[in-house]
Amino acid sequence: MHFTASLLFIGLACAFSSAWAYPYPDPREIVNLQPEPLAYAPNFDVPLHRVRRQFQLNGGGGGSPKQGFDLSLNGRAPVWQSPNGRHSFDATGSYAQHLGGPYGNSRPQWGAGGVYTFRF
């Protein structure tokens, strides 16, 4: 009997403590009937936060006088962006070459391409 009563007391204490920890308001006391604005725009026609995209140029290189030097350059430029900012296309280009060393200069390596981006 004592064991059953203590379990009942513990169960009631847990029920009341959870009610105090997470109180729900009475629906009759809610004054503001307007819903809170959403943090995102579910309507695709509404522009999202647009990021200003800029031209990027990256370069690198390294080596030694005995072995020669490696040189590389990469570039990326914005070409097109949709009005709502979800779709964009960038053009890319690259250049790389080995200079000096026991085998001399290599032929330059050129590259070009494009990057399509869709933002969810």
From TrEMBL:
Q: Write down any Gene Ontology CC term.
A: extracellular space
Key words of the record: Antibiotic, Antimicrobial, Immunity, Innate immunity, Secreted, Signal
What the entry lists under InterPro entries is as follows:
Attacin_C
Kindly indicate whether the keyword DNA-binding belongs to this entry. no
In its UniProt record, which GO terms are filed under biological process? defense response to Gram-positive bacterium; humoral immune response; innate immune response; response to wounding
List membrane-spanning regions.
none
Domain Attacin C-terminal, by residue range, is 67-114
Task: Name the source's superkingdom.
Answer: Eukaryota
Question: Subcellular localization, per the record?
Answer: Secreted
**Secretion signal span:** 1-21
Give the family per the record. Belongs to the attacin/sarcotoxin-2 family.
State the protein's name. Answer: Diptericin B
Q: Which organism is it from?
A: Drosophila melanogaster (Fruit fly)
Species lineage? Eukaryota, Metazoa, Ecdysozoa, Arthropoda, Hexapoda
Query: By which gene is this protein encoded?
Result: DptB
